[in-house]
Amino acid sequence: MTTYYESDDTRSSGAGDDLGATTAPSDMATSESEMRALTSDMVDAHRDSFPQMRASIAEWREVEGETARRSLSRRGLLAAAGAMIAGGVALATLPAAAATRPGLRAGAARGALPDMAGSVPLDVVVAGLAASLENLAVATYAAALKAAGAHKLGVVPAAIGDFATTAMAQHKDHAAAWNSVLASARYKPITAANPVYAKIVDDDFAKVKSVTGVAELALTLEGVAAATYLEAIKALSTPAAVAIAASIQPVEMQHVAILNFVLGRYPAPLAFASLAGAAPVSTAHGLDFAKS
Amino acid sequence: MDYDEHGLGQLLEQSDDIQADAMRASRAQLGEIVEIGQERRAHGAIDRDEVSEFTERRSTALRKGIVGAGAAAGLGAAILALGQTSAFAAAPSDVQVLQTAAAIENLAIATYGVALTLPFIGGASANAVVKVFVTTTRRQHVEHAAAFNASIRALGGIPQTKADPVLLKVVDRAKPTLTSAPKVVELAITLENGAAETYVKDAAMLKDVNAKDLTASIMGVEAQHVAILLAVRALLAGGAAADIALPPPVAKLPAAAGSVGFPNAFYSTTAARPATEGAVR
Fold first, then answer.
1. Which domain holds residue B192?
2. B contacts of A32 (beta carbons < 8 Å)
3. How large is the ipTM?
């Protein structure tokens, strides 16, 4: 068994925390350098995308005062939440990446609305929900890489390990972006994983015995994230927040495509992204929206 | 070539089923758009205030650096020329933005159509998965164009049936150079990424909620096309064309194949097309 990962300090947000994962050696090491060269160009592009993100957050900061002042009434929250819940319910009728785990879907579609109406703007709630889903994705990939390192998943192909490491780093970046938004609105960061989904993922993860199982679980999480952002673009009222959600949703869709590919499925089967599996705003219940 | 024809056929069948379900949802959404469009026309068609509000929001975004025009990678000078296009004309409306989107889709349809006539993409010497990808992706762009045009009609505008004029020149210049699969892939990456970045920008800018929803539901699909093409490009560059298969030989794949398809944590808008570039004149 060969430890195939290499430390890559060009990645952001602590990527490589679990680089000790044991993976299968590739028999194509000669092509690796060429692929790395291509990736290097993309890393440069990645850096270029950060100023845009910071600009969006800065714009959020500018309009946050107004947004906070028009803190939603309970009726407003219910209406917006209804739209997001509709996304969750709709997943029962549409097959999609996220629609492959009935437990997750059923669990996500139900639940009480957050007891925060009238005090927390909806955009803040959505930002917190997004951060909590990103935190869960980070935790899940970290757990998977740890399990791989402990030889609990069998032989882990190098490409799968690289996928997990990179996706985890990007989810950290996403969580950081949403927490910057919360900080701009003078709320404390959401550092916990979404409690509703975490329970379901924990239960599912305990049953996973192979890389394929992990990939299936990751596919579900990525599908939930992509659908949630699609729904969030409708629910968010601040243009800067919409821009952030719009810049993240395609990346989650790309994660879905690559996971589909490695699982042997057609990577982009849908002409239109689905709302199936979107996390309802009710799953923000239990998050600590504390003023900083 | 490592290719399970029977398995791929099943995958395509499954994909078609999923697609049919998605189309039902899309049609429902389009029905809603048409309904709203009819209501708007009954009240005097396009709202002039909408245009001025859009302009203001776009100007604000430009000041904040959210959107912009930049150079695109690939195919040398022809594609680099894309970055020299002026960023935005004055007062683009939702209809103009949607017409540009439809124009981009029309060009993608035509370009993939040309690609399928090439022996190494659509002929006997083609990689089967690449051929299926080009065929399926072309069909998805047909659906995107139809959806954008339905949305345009709903808002009282004129559907766009022509290709984006600026990108068309790029494709026309590139055609004689399309002598191998990697060159076609490179051109496809440029077009798909341009589409994805344009729609990411549009999703944050469009005022009409249904147009926004539609655009948002397409941007991620274009990004998926980009992800697949980036992976294919990397495998071709690495001499691993045989690994472009479904299912792929995952254990054999180089590590970077797992991540080369999604290089950025946040989707950029630097290659977004100007909002009125493909508007009906």
1. 5-258
2. 238, 254-256
3. 0.75
User: Is B144 among the domain residues?
Assistant: yes
Task: List the domain boundaries for chain A.
Answer: 45-284
Integer CA distances (angstroms), A286 to A73, A114, A128, in order: 19, 7, 11
Which DSSP state fits A199?
Answer: H
Whether residue B273 lies inside any domain: the answer is no
- The CA-CA-CA angle for residues A273, A279, A283, to 5°, reads 170
Minimal CA separation from A58 to chain B, in Å: 8
Q: Does B271 fall in a domain? A: no
pLDDT digits (tens, 9 = 90+) for A116-140: 545 899 999 999 999 999 999 999 9
Quick check: A162 and A5 in contact, CB under 8 A?
A: yes
Residues of chain A below pLDDT 50: 1-32, 34-35, 38-47, 63-115, 117
By residue count, chain B amounts to 281
CATH code for the structural domain at A45-284 = 1.20.1260.10
Closest approach of B239 to chain A, Cα-based (Å): 7
CA gap A127, A186 in Å, rounded:
13
A273 and B267: CB-CB below 8 Å? no
Q: Choose among B136, B260, B269: nearest Cβ to A52.
A: B269
Of B60, B144, B227, the CB nearest to A258: B227
Report the chain A residue with the minimal C-alpha distance to residue B241.
A31
Please tell me the total count of domains within chain B. 1
Residue B234 lies in a domain: yes
Interface test with B, best of A64, A162, A228, A272 (most B CBs within 10 A): A272
Instruction: Assess B10–A contact: CB distance below 8 Å, yes or no.
Output: no
Identity at B194, one-letter amino acid code: G
SS3 B115: helix
Tens of pLDDT, residue by residue over B208-241, are 999 999 999 999 999 999 999 999 999 999 999 9
The CATH number covering residue B40 comes to 1.20.1260.10
